[in-house]
């Protein structure tokens, strides 16, 4: 396919997956609105339909809970092709049936991007309308995922990290007692090869965590206090820190001085907290199980998001460039979701090794922002070549480039349109 045909296919995927203002990640496997999927999708729509890009994010915020949380899935209609659906979650926090936890908060960053890319000034009004929602969501994260105020955010479920079966969660997940789940039937493995998905033992625990949270009525303070899974995640923490910096720019632009002061306090707190995730022996920021007090022992693609978060001190920079080059020598396509030198690495199993386009986009942005165009471009070229050769898959093998998981995937199409496509590079030049 030519580049022009790929651009057209990417646009068609977004249009095909559009459900009338919000977009499903892919039909069948993920038939609802997912939080961070939708926000990345907005970037793709923005390349050809600004209004539709805003609508995507506005519809996501329609599902915001009264306490400020923006759920990871909005179940606008029942779809038997997905499990676990709304009745399993048993939530009642907002206007739209939803899951009970959140997902990486990329919205403030993308909203800032949309505002800055629009010279008509119309986007500013839409950003202003969403600003209080963003503040409420960010406050919620700090109150209930960092209850001690240490500046690092925990996830209460592997799905809250967006990186479901990452080896980082293994030990904490094994410590979750399997209970209150009854018999259940997975649907994901009827859409996708089970070898590319989490194991049944993982699902037993995913559901046990949900059962424990249901027991406390999804009350966020009780969840933070009692949830059997509570792991500080460099992915969510760095994405959130980046989002806080972008929210601050929006606050200043919109003249929200009191909010801007509050956000500056958050940034200081998070910059301090990030240090707790640093492990000298690994020369990287890694996850920390808040229940056992143990750090994990592997480097994930999220470790590279330190730069995206604006944490580019010399030690971090030197270490990340070293890891980048080592991993680059080891696999054909960057960036594997888990260190290929780690024993738990699996090149085709979801988040245990495969490459994800939107993670590459964020890592590259971090490198570009510190002036390392070479590493940023390597990530872009690898992403482009994976898509050119293997289509708009959910994720890809870092070794062979084979596409895996769901097909005609919305955020892969969106990332192609907004960043990876050579058309985009030409426009930016
Ligand atoms: C799933 O169902 O696999 C999703 O990733 C949960 O968010």
Brief synopsis:
With 429 residues, this protein is mainly α. 52% of the residues lie in helices and 4% in strands. The strands form four sheets. Strands 3-4-7 form a three-stranded antiparallel β-sheet. Strands 1-2 form a two-stranded antiparallel ribbon.
Q: What would you note in describing this structure?
A:
By secondary structure, the protein is mainly alpha-helical. Helix content is 52%, strand content 4%. It is built from 18 helices and 9 strands. The protein has helices at 3-17, 35-46, 50-61, 86-89, 107-117, 122-145, 170-174, 188-191, 200-215, 220-226, 234-253, 257-277, 305-308, 314-330, 357-369, 373-390, 410-420, 422-428, and strands at residues 33-34, 73-74, 154-155, 231-232, 278-279, 284-285, 288-289, 395-396, 403-404. The strands form 4 sheets. It has a 3-stranded antiparallel β-sheet. α5 (107-117) runs antiparallel to α6 and α5 runs parallel beside α11. It is globular, with a radius of gyration of 20 Å. The two termini are 23 Å apart. Residues 72, 159, 164, 188 line the site of (2R)-2,3-dihydroxypropanoic acid.
